[in-house]
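User: Sequence recovery, please. Input:
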C-alpha cells in the first residue's frame, strides 16, 4: 500500500528584490530575528535588470539562515522589467502553489520595485489567497544603511507585518 502524500506544514517566504540587495537581506534577517520565522522555502522574485543580484541575495539568505540553524530551499524567479501584469500572475501562481502544498506564505515587499509590489499585492488579493504575512522593513532614515542588519541601529528600523497592522492576523 502506498502512503498518502503528507502536505507541507511549514513556512514559505517570497522576497521581492529591486535595487537594494541589502534591503532584502536585512528585512529577511529582521524577520528571523524579531518574528521568529524559519521558512522551509525562500523564493526571490526580481526583474531582469536585477537578475545578477538575485544570486547574491540567495547566497546571503542562505548564510543568514545558517546563522539561525536552518537551511531553506532557495530559488529565484526572474520577471520582465516593469511588467505589472506578469509580476502579479507570477507571484499569484507561486503563492497559490505554495499554499496548495500546505505552506503558510509570507511576502516581503521591502526591496521590491513599485510595479512588482503593486502587481503582487493586487493579484493575491483579487485571487483571495491566504497570505499570512506581508513584511516591510521600515527605516526612519536611509543614511548609511547599506550594511548588515545587526550593524544598523535598531531604533531607526522596524520590521512591520502589514497583515498584523491591518488586523488581519493576530
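Assistant: Recovered sequence (170 residues):
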Amino acid at each position: 500500500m502506498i502512503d498518502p502524500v503528507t502536505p507541507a506544514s511549514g513556512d514559505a517566504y517570497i522576497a521581492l528584490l529591486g535595487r537594494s540587495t541589502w534591503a532584502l537581506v536585512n528585512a529577511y534577517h529582521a524577520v528571523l530575528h524579531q518574528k521568529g520565522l524559519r521558512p522551509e522555502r525562500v523564493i526571490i522574485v526580481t526583474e531582469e535588470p536585477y537578475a545578477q543580484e538575485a544570486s547574491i541575495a540567495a547566497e546571503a539568505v542562505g548564510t543568514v539562515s545558517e546563522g539561525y540553524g536552518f537551511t531553506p530551499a532557495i530559488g529565484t524567479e526572474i520577471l520582465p522589467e516593469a511588467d505589472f501584469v506578469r509580476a502579479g500572475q507570477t507571484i499569484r501562481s507561486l503563492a497559490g502553489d505554495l499554499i496548495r502544498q500546505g505552506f503558510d506564505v509570507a511576502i516581503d515587499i521591502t526591496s521590491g520595485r513599485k510595479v512588482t509590489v503593486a502587481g503582487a499585492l493586487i493579484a493575491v488579493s483579487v485571487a483571495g489567497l491566504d497570505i499570512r504575512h506581508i513584511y516591510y522593513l521600515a527605516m526612519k532614515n536611509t543614511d548609511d544603511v547599506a550594511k548588515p542588519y545587526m550593524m544598523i541601529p535598531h531604533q531607526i528600523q522596524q520590521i512591520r507585518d502589514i497583515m498584523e497592522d491591518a488586523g488581519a492576523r493576530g
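The chain has five helices and six strands.
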